[in-house]
Every structure is written in structure tokens, then in C-alpha cells.
Amino acid sequence: MRIKITGAGSYIPTEIIQNEDFENHQFFNSDGVQINNSNTVIIDKFRKITGIEERRYASSTLNTSDIAFLSAKKAIEDADVDKETLDYIIVAHNFGDVDKNSSQADTVPSLAARVKHLLKIENPYCVAYDVLFGCPGWIEGVIQAVSFMKSGMAKKCLVIGAETLSRVIDEYDRDSMIYSDGSGATILEITENTGGILSSISASHTFEESNFLFFGDTYNTTTNDQTKYIKMYGRKIYEFALTHVPMAMKKCLDKTDINISAVKKILIHQANEKMDEAIIKRFYELYKQEVPDNIMPMSIQKLGNSSVATIPTLYDLILKGNISDHSFHSGDILLFASVGAGMNINAFLYQF
What pLDDT sits at residue 100? Predict the structure, then answer.
């Protein structure tokens, strides 16, 4: 049995927020003390570490389920499938629908149910549900879809990663510059064609790591704001990722008889350019090899970190020829990997 991605689509929000747009912000440390450095210095250091130059925010008329629908519609069209034949719709996100003027999450009904409604699918046996798995949510949705198909429970699945992180960020926290909005979707099918999903792995590290990403108070303690915002212990996440992600990627690859030299592209969660580069370097060091040129396509420079949407969006952009110097060719071995809140890690190996 071979299971392949037969269609992909993405929605890139239209509102472009450049680094310079944060020049007039007030930034505070977690202890409530305002950062002494000028915003020019803060932003320049931020760009050098993360690689982010600009990011995208969804318009006020669109919510997470809306942009999930828009990417799903493109994926269905790309795969040229009858939407009524879908067995599962799996939507990965973290905060549900969040109104532009409120950070309160709305998850009833599920975003998957809302997407199915917007797609106007009548088939009641097309099961729609959500996945909450941090940034690795889309990969986890793919892994679950593959399990359904291998067990005979499904033949065709729609897996979406969508998020509007711009609506759950603390404007006084410099980490707010990392986050963005977006959506990516894929159709997976049982196929007679060669290739497809070759192996996968998932892990949840919760003994000491469960709160590395969390909901917390604004860093500006002079306000009466009671809203909770996305927060993270950046250094702890960086150290965790460099320790555990390369090993998980190796375990995924080692489940097969494929040599690391056969891997043509690594599509990793677009969290932080320097961190991603370090992860890839350590991955190759496990095999005592140097990192090949052009192995890791990146979209973070222009799109920021849209959580569950980064990898399916990146895949679609490469597929459609929108990432310079990167492309897929029949038979290429691709390694997908992610890390995020939980702390969760996952990966899958794929032959294009």
C-alpha cells in the first residue's frame, strides 16, 4: 500500500507586516522592566537570529477556519478529487478561531467541522476533527491519516494546518515579532504510484518540558490587561530542539534502508532560521557528514512563523515553483520534521 500527497494548497494572508512596523512598540522583559536598547537594535538582533524580515497577518474579515477552508479548496482542486469522497478532514491548529478584536479562542464547533461546512460537503461519513499538537500538528495529522488508510478506515484524507497567531500575541513582548498567520492543506490518498510515506515518528516530552510554551500575562505590568497571550522560554526551547529533534529525525530515517545521502530536501518547521540550521547540522553530524548545499528550503524570511501552517505552506510553495532554487522531482526523498508546544516532536520520510 502506497499513500501519497496528491494535492496541495495554501493561503498566504495579504497584510504584510515588516520589521520596521515594530519601531514604535514598547518592549518589556518577562519581569516587567522595559528593555533599554533602542527598537532598532532589538529588531536588528531579532532579524539576525530568526531570519525574519516580514510576516503576514490575516485580514479582520477572515478567521482561522476561513483561511483553512481557502487552502483546503485549493488542495482539493489540485488533487482533482470529488470532495464528497473524502473520508476524513483533519485540521491542526492551537487556538481555534480568534476574533481580530479578542484573544479568546473559539473551538465549538471544531474548526474541521467549520471547514467541512464551508466546503459544502454533504457526506455525513466524512469525519471532521481537530488536532492540538503544537506546531507539529500538521505532521501529526498526516501521520494519523496514514494510520487510518493503512487500517482500512479511509482511502482519502484532507489534512490542514491553519493558525492566526497574530491574534494571541503580547505587543509588549519582542517574541511577538516571530509569529504570523497562514494555512496549508494537503490531500493524501491510497495510490498505485511509487513512493509516498515511507516512515514516521512522534514523541511527546512532558516530564519537565510541558510548559516551555504557555499562555501567560502581558509583560507590561502597568496595564490592567487580564488577557492571556502566547509565551515561551526561548532558550529552553532552543536547547531542547537541538538535543531531541535531530535524534528523532535519525530514528525516522533509520526505520528505512535509505541512506542519508539520498535525502534531497528537509522541510522543517519554520520556527527560527538559526535554530533550524543548527538542527540540520546536528542531524548530519549524527551520520558524521557535512550538511549538503541547498538541502533546507526556508520561507520564514517573508512569512514568519505560522505554527502548524509553516510546513504545508512551504511544501505547496515549492511545489508551485514559488521558492527560488528549490524544486521537487519524481523519486526525490524528502524528510519532514517539526517541534513545538507539548513539547512535541515528529517527522516523516516521503518519496515524491
Answer: 80
d(CA 329, CA 326): 10
Please give the model's pTM, rounded to 2 decimal places: 0.95
Backbone angles phi, psi at 16, to 5 degrees: -95, 125
| 8-19 pLDDT, tens digit each | 999 999 999 999
Candidates 183, 195, 178; CA nearest to 69 is 183
DSSP 213-234: EEEE--S-TTS-----EEEE-H
The dihedrals phi and psi of 254, each to the nearest 5 degrees, come to -70, -10
Of 271, 247, 264, give the one whose Cα is nearest residue 318.
Answer: 264
- Average pLDDT estimate for 278-290: 97
User: Amino acid identity, residue 257?
Assistant: D
Set of cell numbers at residue 258: 535509505
Residue 327 near residue 352, CB atoms below 8 Å: no
What is the spatial distance between Cα 67 and Cα 12, in angstroms, rounded to a whole number? 9
Question: CA quadruple 276, 241, 30, 95: dihedral positive or negative?
Answer: positive
- Cβ neighbors of 31 (< 8 A, separation 6 or more) are none
The pLDDT tens digits of the residues spanning 211-257 come to 999 999 999 999 988 889 999 999 999 999 999 999 999 999 999 99
Identify the band that residue 103 occupies on the pLDDT scale cut at 50, 70 and 90.
Answer: low
**For residue 221, how many other CB atoms are within 10 A of its CB?**
12
At 174, list the grid cell: 519582542
Of the candidates 20, 322, 71, 321, the residue with the CA atom closest to the CA atom of residue 181: 71
